[in-house]
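Minutes, project huddle
Topic: does the predicted pose make sense with protoporphyrin IX containing FE bound?
PN asked that the exact inputs be recorded in the minutes so nobody has to dig through chat later. Recorded below.
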Amino acid sequence: MNTYLWEDCQLVCLRKDKKPFFFYLRTTATHTPIVNSAQQTKSWKEIPGPSLWDLMKQALPGASGDLNLTDGLKLGQALYDHYGPIVKLDGFLGRPPIILLYDPEQCAQVLRSENWLPIRSGFQSLDYYRRNKRNKGNENQSNPDMTGLLTDHGETWKKFRSTVNPVLLQPKTIKLYTSIIDEVAQDMIVRTSNTITASLYLLANNQDKQDKLRAEILSITDENQKRSYLRACVKESMRIMPVVSGNIREATKEYVIFGYSIPPGIGISFMHQAMSMMEEHYPRPTEFLPERWLVKKGDPLYHGNAHPFVNQPFGFGVRSCIGRRIAELEIYTFLSRLIQNFRVEWFGPPMQTKVASINYITGPHNFIFKDA
Ligand code: HEM
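Predicted holo structure (tokens), as shared on screen:
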């Protein structure tokens, strides 16, 4: 039987006096029940997954297992292949375990349910540093309890986020920075971000797509003209080579997922990168096909056929990435400048990535830039 749940959205309106006004909208949606007491549930401890020892063995020099700890995508996929759509990873050094989820509908239920004051655990060291080293005795720090959006939680986070939301998430406000970002892009002194490097790599290995993109860029006569193919290329790059392999929420209530009862306090990780590379969600998943973001409903490639919680490069809900608009503007500006002027090629073995809190692209960066 379905139950009704509340979904929360934070909305921002600008009043006539231009001051932002925040309110929360609560709507209903149908979902399968998260907790059903009559249901026979198993303990979360029975969720399949590798032991800590299994994982540590893989990290030792000369390890021969097939769980590659340095490649986020391969590790994520190998865990799914071994254990299925829900996997338990034991916690290190007294930390609670993390549950990995590979099912978009289950991800949706947790993310929607944890969208009031979401807790994104995993930055304890940064939090400790900011609280005990940076803030301590710092006269310029007006609130020593405030550590920043990444690390703060509860009311402290909400107050900060509500203040910066209208400035950083309004496309109109961010557009004011276009010329500054463009100057930087023209000077080519941008520290190329992961997403820019990934996009360049994928375009270098797909010359026909690069030609199509260059044709679009050269056809632009007015800066307000839509750059649909450019946007599609960036979306496709973030699907194949995202900055983060997944996202996380700390459960604040009990969930029943695939028959396992998961108590509050456990971290639940949503395996977006691995799900985004599954044929069942995106056909021909390993191919760089920006067209999938442009074709219409009815086309087998149509991106809307995938569940909306499969691919979420900027996260979800009120805690989603505050830097999204800045990042997008920087990526679009830099890529346009570069592809307009250069033909980008790649030589040698495939680009390597290394998994840490984010997916780092490690060198060598074997790009060749030729005059276009
Ligand atoms: C392509 C570039 C970027 C990607 C893919 C990205 C992705 C993400 C993701 C997945 C999250 C977690 C969201 C969630 O928990 O639901 C996040 C949070 C965040 N990002 Fe980004 N990000 C990018 C660029 C930036 C930039 C340029 C800035 C700063 C200007 C930034 C600042 C932040 C902050 C402060 C948070 C925490 C927000 C909060 O908890 O309220 N990000 N980002």
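Observations noted during the meeting:
- The first strand starts at residue 3 and ends at 14.
- Residues 1-38 have pLDDT under 50 and may be disordered.
No decisions taken; revisit at the next huddle.
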